[in-house]
Design goal:
This protein is about 50% helix and about 10% strand. With about 400 residues, the chain is an alpha+beta fold. The strands form two sheets. A four-stranded mixed sheet has the order 4-5-6-7, with helices on one face. Strands 1-2-3 form a three-stranded antiparallel sheet, with no helix packed on it. The longest helix has 22 residues. The radius of gyration is 26 Å and the shape is globular. Keywords: Cell cycle, Cell division, Chromosome partition, Cytoplasm, DNA integration, DNA recombination, DNA-binding, Ribonucleoprotein, Ribosomal protein. InterPro entries: CB, DNA_brk_join_enz, Integrase-like_cat_sf, Integrase_catalytic, Integrase_recombinase_N, Integrase_SAM-like_N, RHF-like, RHF/RaiA. It is found in: Cytoplasm.
């Protein structure tokens, strides 16, 4: 066996993942890539062909350090450590070693960025824009966007969706998610109508298919194609830092929570294994909490605003900062009772530099939006500057209407 070949024990472990644990091909491929790189690092460092041993802790730790020094994210290093731990646990299971050398190793702290989502009014503009009535590709791509947004699917689930798994009469989809976990996702009348329209034009121009979403030549779509379709569609959405299918999945979860869905229901619809994965969306879903608070007899409503949204980019915003921004914005309603909502985005531009806090605030009014964006040394100051700019815009608007 040469140094470039996959070691026999890794091959055996990958077989176990694929046929005994029934992991997805994507998981098996990622584990294979990670473990082969580890084996190559082992051989380069020791000058020997890789064989698992209880004494591999120092080499494994050195490999993880090399990944960190190469600038890999904490989440990526954690994933590679998970692959190592799974591999060595399996070696213990089959009796190749007596105990795992990496069982006590810990990776770097995982980053916890807030999910990026698209505000409802921007999604409505995107999904209601006109498309040609007889254009198969345009109709298919719009349905992909609608399905991601209304059903919260992953891009791989869109690509792998079978035609017989989409049941229009029942109003649901049978989804095969990670680790071949099955779930049922319901959908409404709007999606039913679009599915029927898509199937009609697909059957006319492409023919019957086992897969639901196909190309013009009848082949099923790949995850990469789905990604490119969504990225192209989201290209013109302003201030969107990510433009992937997962953004629409985040938007689905956010809208569900904002409109009263409980965490357990959203967890099941998304196909999450752990509730902790779903909890991340509560950081950007405050509508339910605000409604509960407004029921308090002392909670006098100062504003007609019904849609207040908040998003933090590149940092974790404190509750105090969110409350500060919301108070400032609600006071603007004293200048105009036409304001129906507002969106605040706080962004950390460059850490450890002056004037690196950016606040952008958009006010929604009938027929137009008002927008202000300012930078300062603190987020509070940036918010105040943006509020002052919006006050001037509201006053000018009021003068123009006299």
């Amino acid at each position: 066996m040469t140094m470039n070949e996959t070691p026999e024990t890794i091959e055996r472990f990958l077989y176990y993942l694929r046929y005994e644990r029934n992991d997805s091909e994507r998981t098996v491929s990622e584990y294979a890539q990670d473990l082969n790189r580890y084996a190559a690092f082992f051989s380069e460092r020791t000058g020997e062909a890789f064989e698992p041993s209880e004494r591999d802790k120092d080499v494994a730790r050195a490999w993880l350090f090399s990944l960190i020094e190469a600038g890999q994210k904490g989440s990526s290093v954690q994933r590679r450590l998970s692959a190592l731990k799974s591999y060595y646990r399996y070696m213990v299971k089959i009796g190749r070693i007596s105990q795992s050398p990496v069982r006590m190793l810990k990776g770097p702290k995982k980053e916890l960025p807030l999910p990026v989502f698209i505000p409802h009014h921007q999604m409505e503009q995107l999904l209601n824009s006109p498309i040609p009535e007889d254009d198969f590709t345009a109709i298919r791509d719009r349905l992909i966007l609608e399905t991601l947004y209304q059903a919260g699917l992953r891009r791989s689930e869109i690509a792998d969706l079978k035609d017989d798994a989409v049941e229009v009469d029942a109003g649901n989809m049978r989804i095969t998610g990670k680790r071949n976990k099955q779930r049922i996702v319901p959908f409404g009348s709007r999606l039913k109508s679009m599915i029927n329209e898509y199937r009609d034009i697909r059957d006319q121009k492409v023919g019957k298919s086992n897969f639901f979403f196909v190309s013009l030549d009848g082949r099923p779509l790949t995850g990469e194609v789905v990604y490119n379709i969504v990225r192209s569609a989201l290209a013109d959405v302003p201030q969107l830092t990510k433009k992937s299918p997962h953004v629409l999945r985040h938007s689905f979860a956010t809208e569900m929570l904002n409109h009263g869905a409980d965490l357990m229901s959203v967890k099941e619809l998304l196909g999450h294994d752990s509730l902790s994965t779903t909890v991340q969306y509560t950081h950007i879903s405050f509508e339910q909490l605000k409604q509960m608070y407004n029921a308090h007899p002392r909670a006098k409503k100062e504003t007609t605003m019904t849609d207040l949204r908040f998003q933090a980019l590149h940092f974790d915003a404190t509750d105090q900062l969110k409350e500060f921004a919301e108070k400032k914005i609600t006071k603007l309603s004293r200048l105009s009772d036409e304001i129906t909502g507002a969106e605040t985005i706080l962004k950390l531009i460059k850490p450890d530099t002056a004037q690196n806090k950016e606040a952008s605030i958009r006010l929604y009014l009938p027929g137009e939006d008002l927008f202000a964006e300012k930078t300062a040394d603190t987020f509070e100051e940036a918010i105040d500057l943006s509020i002052d700019a919006l006050k001037r815009q509201l006053e000018k608007r009021k003068e123009q209407r006299k």
